[in-house]
Amino acid sequence: MSLTEINFDGIVGPTHNYAGLSPGNLAATSNAGAPSWPRAAALQGIAKMRATLALGLAQGILLPHDRPDTYWLAALGTDAVQAGGLWAAATSASAMWAANAATVSPGADTGDGRCHLSVANLVTMPHRAHEWPQTLTQLQLAFADTRHFAVHAPVPAPFGDEGAANHMRLASAHDKAGVEVFVYGEQGGRFPARQHRIASESVARRHGLDPAATLFVEQSPQAIAAGAFHNDVVAVANERVLFAHEQAFADRDGFYAALRDRLPEAEIVEVPAAAVSLEDAIASYLFNAQLVTLPGGGMALVLPTEAQAHRRVWRWLEALVAGNGPIRTLVPVDVRESMANGGGPACLRLRVVCDPATVDPRFLVDEAKLDRIAEVVTEHWPERVGPEDHVTLGDWPAARAARAALLAALDLSVLT
Ligand code: SUG
Q1: Is the dihedral of CA 323, 327, 328, 332 positive or negative?
Q2: Distance CA 255, CA 258 (A)
Q3: Ligand 1 in contact with 231 (CB < 6 A)?
Q4: Digit-coded pLDDT (tens) for 320-376
Q5: Is 21 helix (H, G, I), strand (E, B) or coil?
Q6: pLDDT for 6-65, tens place per residue?
Q7: Residue nearest to atom 5 of ligand 1 (CA)
Q8: Exposure of 188 by Cβ count < 10 A (0-12 exposed, 13-18 middle, 19+ buried)?
Q9: Among 5, 131, 162, 306, which one carries the catalytic annotation?
C-alpha cells in the first residue's frame, strides 16, 4: 500500500453563476447578479489541477452535478417554468466546491483502518442542501472498494454539516495516525453558523475516531461575523503544520495547548491580526490555500492570485517563505471565477489520503485527461451567463448536454 494525499477537485459546471445565495459569504453576496463565465471558470480549475500535477502531486476529480435539479424542484411541487425564487437554487453549480462534499478520515485514524468519508448535508443554504444525493453517488463509485473505504450518507438535518471545510487533520505524516480537529460555530451572530457541533461529533463517532485524538474547536464568532463562513477561510493544516489567523478560533490558547499536547511536533504558523487583519485575510483568501507536502520535502501554499495582489498579505507571505519555516514555496493560481462566489483554491478540492490504486481510475487525472476535459469544456460550456439567461434558458438543455458530453468523455455516463 502506498498511501498518499490525493486532491479531488470539483470541475466547475456549465451553469456556474452568481445568484448571491449565501448570506455571510461576502464575495458571493456582493457579486449577486453579475454575469458569470462558466467556460473560463472551468478552465481556471483545470489550470489549477495542472499546477498541482506539476508539483508532483496526485490529482483527482469530482464531476459537476445535473443542473437544474428538476428532481428537487419536483419534490417541492414545482418545475423549471414555475420555480420562481427556487430556480437559482436549483441551477447553482455549487457542487464545484469539493471541500464541502464530505469529511474524510484516513484509515490511520479510524477504528477499522479504512478511510471513512461522510457526505455533508449542507442543510444551511437551500441551494447546497440538495447536493448530497449526487455527491453520495459519486463517492460510492470513486471509493467503491469497501476493503479500503467506508462512504457514509449525511448526518440527518437539522444538524448542519459542511464537510472538510470545517475539518483539519494534523499528523507527523499523512500515513501516520493524527489529530482530527472539527471546527464548529455557535448560532446567534450576524451570519448563520453553518457547522453544528452535534454534526461534527456524529461524523467523528461514525468514523470510529479515537476520542483522545479528536478535538472540537469553536470558530471565533468574530471570524464568522467578518465573513469567514467556513473555517477554511481562516485556517488550513497539513501534516504537522497549522497555518491560521490569530483570530480564527474562539479559544485560541486552549486549542493550541490541546493540539500540542496530542501532537508535540505540531508547528503553528500564526498570522497576527496586527500584520493582516481578519478583513484582509477574508478579502485576499490567503488561508484558503492548499498547503501541500512536496515530494522532495518542504511544503507549498497554492493560493489565489488575489493574495498576491494584496500588498500587506503578500509582503507577509514573502517574509514567511524567506524564513526557515516549513512553508517554502508560494504558488499563486488564478481561480477568479470561483473566488467571485467565495471559493478559493482550497474550497475547490477534497483531500483523501489513500492508495491511488484503490480508487476508481476514472476519478484520477493526468495531463492527457485534463486535455480531454478542457476540450469538452471549450466546446460545450457557455462562455457567458448573464442574469437575463436565468429566465430565458428554460430547462437549460444546453447545460445537460454539456455535462453529458463530459461524462461520456470520461467513461462516466453511468452518472447521467
Ligand atoms: O457555500 N458559494 C459557496 C462557496 C463555498 C466555499 N467553500 C469553502 N469555503 N470550502 C458557499 O457559500 C455562492 C453561490 C451563489 O451565490 O450563486 C456559493 O454557494
Answers
A1: negative
A2: 5
A3: no
A4: 999 989 999 999 999 999 999 999 999 999 999 999 999 999 999 999 999 999 999
A5: coil
A6: 999 999 999 999 999 999 999 999 999 999 999 999 999 999 999 999 999 999 999 999
A7: 343
A8: exposed
A9: 162
318 is catalytic: no
The model scores a pTM over 0.90: yes
Residue 208, pLDDT above cutoff 90: yes
Q: What angle do CA 327, 330, 336 make, to 5 degrees?
A: 135
Ligand 1 atom nearest to CA at 163: 10
Ligand 1 contact via 26 beta carbon (within 6 Å):
no
Ligand 1 centroid to residue 122 C-alpha, Å: 11
Task: Determine the residue of 122, 195, 230 to mutate for testing ligand 1's pocket, defined as the one with the most ligand atoms within 8 A of the Cβ atom.
Answer: 230
CB-CB contact of 207 with 250 (8 Å): no
Which sign does the torsion angle of CA 337, 60, 142, 396 carry? positive
Q: Catalogue all structural domains in the chain, each as residue range(s) with its CATH number.
A: 4-415 (3.75.10.20)
Give the active site residue among 65, 130, 337, 347: 347
Mean predicted confidence (pLDDT) in 92-111: 98
Percentage of the residues of the chain whose pLDDT score is greater than 70: 98
Whether 162 is catalytic: yes
